Amino acid sequence: MRMTRLIGAVAAAIALILAAGCSGSDDDKKTEAGAAPGGRLEKVTYLTGAGILGRESYVYVAMDKGFFKEAGFDVQVQAGKGTDPNIKLLQAGAVDFAVLDITAALIAYGRGTYKDFTIVSAIQQRNLACFMAFSGSGISTPKDLEGKKIAFIPGGIVKTLFDTYAKLAGVDPTKVTWVATQPEALVPAMSSGSVDAATQFVVGKPQVEKVAKEKGQSAVVLPFSDQLTDLYGNGLGVSRKLATENPDKVKRFNAAMLKGLQYALDNPDEAGKIYAKYQKTQPEPVAAAEMKLMISYAKTSGTALGSLDEQKATQNVAALQSGGAIPGQINPKDVINFDIVAKS
Fold this sequence. Notes:
Elements: H1 2-30, E1 42-47, E2 50-51, H2 57-64, H3 67-71, E3 73-78, E4 80-81, H4 83-91, E5 97-101, H5 102-110, E6 118-122, E7 129-134, E8 149-152, H6 157-169, E9 177-180, H7 186-192, E10 197-201, H8 205-214, E11 219-223, E12 234-238, H9 240-245, H10 247-266, H11 268-278, H12 284-298, H13 310-322
Parallel strand pairs: 1-3, 1-5, 8-9, 8-10
Antiparallel strand pairs: 2-4, 5-12, 6-12, 7-10, 7-11
Helix pairs in contact: 2-10, 2-11, 8-12, 10-11, 11-12
């Protein structure tokens, strides 16, 4: 009996040792490139530009298709509030990655407002800033903005860039009344008639058009790119600390996000469906329509998706300086990490 118990104990011990060895081997096999030890995914927080609208579908595509998982990330998406608030959260270490308007970021750095951040890719090669109004508002040209009430997102690019835009468009900025509004309330404010127009991105036209049609009207779009040509749009921002201490993490996330962006631009209808699985802010067709409008802004012939060109960035700075948006001299390298971004 004693011998039987001894043999049983030895056998159990051997089984545990073998199981432990096999378990460790399996974990090693399951570990994905860039994943934490043991194959665990690293939790990171991603902040959208402003709200979570159809134009952000690509981040859900990257989640849904497993691009982030392949890169070793478990991504939590949070709604951003505009470039200034997003930079604040980046600098405070409250989020890992955030969408920033590159033009607004250049202005913020040039004015000395924020310093501890850097841009690592361009989501759009052209700036999306614009004003939108309903056709019954009496607004059809930039000059018509005078004497009107405009809803805006505090810290957003449109208000930040307005004086430069107004100078080029022949608008007297002192004749515009600004009404601070949260991103999700911009279109309702226009619909209620409490404001005459709202700051927007051009890809937001489908949402505005949908509401305008319900009122028997159409959407009027006044793009900033008509006056300020060749400015970059949104980009992916991180803190300087993260870019310096863990550039591999930034590169892996950036690559996975851009893979999602590429897929969403190539398959906008599917991207709209994926967006609708995760978010209910906009219906699937509107989300898809936003992605379709974004194609010409994100893709440029001869330019790699997500890339940032130092010469173009220098021209952006010069344009902002000539318009008075940036008071002094800055080097684009102070704001953009050209060692991490994709090359043109």
